[in-house]
Amino acid sequence: MKIISTKREGELKIAFEGELDHHAARSALSRISQLIDIELPRKLVLDLSSLSFMDSSGIAIIVHSYRRMNELEGSLVISNVPGQAYKVLSAAGINRIIQVDKALV
Amino acid sequence: MKIISTKREGELKIAFEGELDHHAARSALSRISQLIDIELPRKLVLDLSSLSFMDSSGIAIIVHSYRRMNELEGSLVISNVPGQAYKVLSAAGINRIIQVDKALV
Amino acid sequence: MNYNNEMNLSFISRSINESFARAAVSAFAAQLDPTLEELEDIKTAVSEAVTNCIVHAYPDRVDRIYIRARLFEDNTIEIVIRDKGVGISDIDKARAPMFTTGGGERSGMGFTIMESFMDSLKVKSKQGRGTTVIMRKRISMRYAGRIGA
Amino acid sequence: MNYNNEMNLSFISRSINESFARAAVSAFAAQLDPTLEELEDIKTAVSEAVTNCIVHAYPDRVDRIYIRARLFEDNTIEIVIRDKGVGISDIDKARAPMFTTGGGERSGMGFTIMESFMDSLKVKSKQGRGTTVIMRKRISMRYAGRIGA
Ligand SMILES: Nc1ncnc2c1ncn2[C@@H]1O[C@H](COP(=O)(O)OP(=O)(O)O)[C@@H](O)[C@H]1O
Ligand SMILES: Nc1ncnc2c1ncn2[C@@H]1O[C@H](COP(=O)(O)OP(=O)(O)O)[C@@H](O)[C@H]1O
Q: Nearest 5°: phi and psi at C95?
């Protein structure tokens, strides 16, 4: 999995590419934590548009990011979520707690 | 695997689509034999452009078609052969006996 | 019921094999001509079960994970994923949403996702002996008689 | 030499499993980051060996085919394909190009293709007991240390 980050006016966008499973999650988690600590963003956008697969390991990453952004009194948006990942987030009820924007197909 | 045939002025073209392995070969062989018997072409073109995979089961089909066209005193051309199938035909030396035209990449 | 086809797979519990396991089961399930969504459901459930073996069953060692998949006459796939690891003491508790012994890196939603992505989920376990997860999913029939070889 | 990863696969000798076997081994081999051509070479060799089990080893019955694949430290994949079928009486003769006992539907080029698509091919057989084919291929190193998990 690849991670690409961009920062603009207090907004940090982190885009994922490839398959986000438990194998990929460990390095992704430490990378995201590091990026948040450096940038201290007001708003964090996790862009999932290029994820070809995500399982519950992705939920752990999202929940972690949510807690961290709450501590910073910032906001979190999960954007461009493909069908499979959206189904995982819905099954876990994440969309009831965090703003999850489905990808337009 | 899918087989699509077209006939034009004594030339019968048979195009393959998908994976040509032993599983697909049996029905392909009987279909080709049938088409040759019905059309009695002067020239047979086997178009492999849409083959995503071919193993030595494809060689048996080509050799069979070659013998049949010899009996009919017609010609055989194997056209648009993708890289993987071309390598199989070369390893078997088929290109030294039958005209094999590689696909342009 | 009779099954038309069966495969058995085993591999070592390294996380790099998670994507391999998904791909292998999915290539087998493809024989039932599933929709892309059905195939993704199966991949997701397999990923959860295999990850559980790697993370929970064998926390301190690398050992073997076993998968058996069968295709039944009614277009159902059954997937059995088995480990010889630590086992689960209270299965009902383990299956509850958000329950995890995995700390911050796990969400506790693995079993919940397996349940909601498959038609049925059965979990058997014996402490110190290992865990077996049995999942079934019926694939929608799009054409008749496609499995016949 | 030490191997980094191993998988074992078995399935019944129905021809519909030929494409499944190719896909499964190829998904495992993908861990070595092969080029597309290297992956296609592996798929082709697996297809030949598995077809031989289905056509020649078990001509009149459906039985089990076994595949073991290992990834070695030097970026080599070893693939072992085994059956418990009729066996081969004269292996040298069987390996010769164009030799076939399969009639017009086979070309007799299976072993020739396995040999030319892989770096090495070993065939062991015992009549009435079965045949084992061992193939190895070294995958070109494009980046360092990719298998590590
Ligand atoms: N194969 C297994 N071996 C041992 N324990 C397991 C296994 N699978 C699940 N568990 C236990 O059940 C709990 C819940 O599992 P699950 O719902 O998949 O969530 P998670 O994997 O995120 O913890 C795990 O935290 C673990 O304690
Ligand atoms: N697994 C096997 N069990 C029994 N006989 C085999 C097996 N594999 C190969 N053979 C024998 O070796 C011959 C040559 O095999 P091969 O070169 O693959 O060509 P083909 O499969 O087209 O006949 C076969 O025709 C068969 O007699």
A: -80, -15
pTM for this predicted structure: 0.94
Residues B4/B31, Cβ–Cβ less than 8 Å:
no
Q: Are A59 and C48 in contact (CB under 8 A)?
A: no
| Torsion sign across C-alpha atoms C72, C75, C76, C80 | positive
The class level of CATH for C3-138 reads alpha beta
Phi, psi of C14 (to 5 degrees): -105, 140
Residue A70's contacts (CB-CB under 8 Å, 6 or more residues apart) are none
Q: Sort out which chain D residues have CB atoms less than 8 A from B83's CB and list them.
A: 37, 40
**CATH number 3.90.1150.10 given to A2-102:** no
* Residue C57: per-residue pLDDT: 98
Q: By C-alpha distance, which of C57, C20, C47 is closest to C114?
A: C47
Token pair of D64, please?
């089990």
Report chain D residues touching chain C, CB-CB < 8 A.
5-12, 14-17, 19-20, 23-24, 27-28, 30-31, 147, 149
- The pLDDT tens digits of the residues spanning C55-71 come to 999 999 999 999 999 99
Interhelix angle for D17-29 vs B22-39, to 10°?
A: 130
Question: pLDDT per residue over D94-118, tens digit each?
Answer: 999 999 999 888 999 999 999 999 9
- Given a cut of 80, whether residue D143 has pLDDT beyond it is no
Nearest ligand 1 atom, CA C123: 8
Domain coordinates in residue numbering, chain B: 2-102
Find, among B74, B22, B82, the residue nearest to B45 by Cα: B74
Is D19 in Cβ contact with C24 (below 8 Å)?
Answer: no
Alpha-helical (H) ranges within chain C are 17-29, 36-52, 91-95, 110-117
Given a cut of 50, is residue A44 above it in pLDDT?
yes
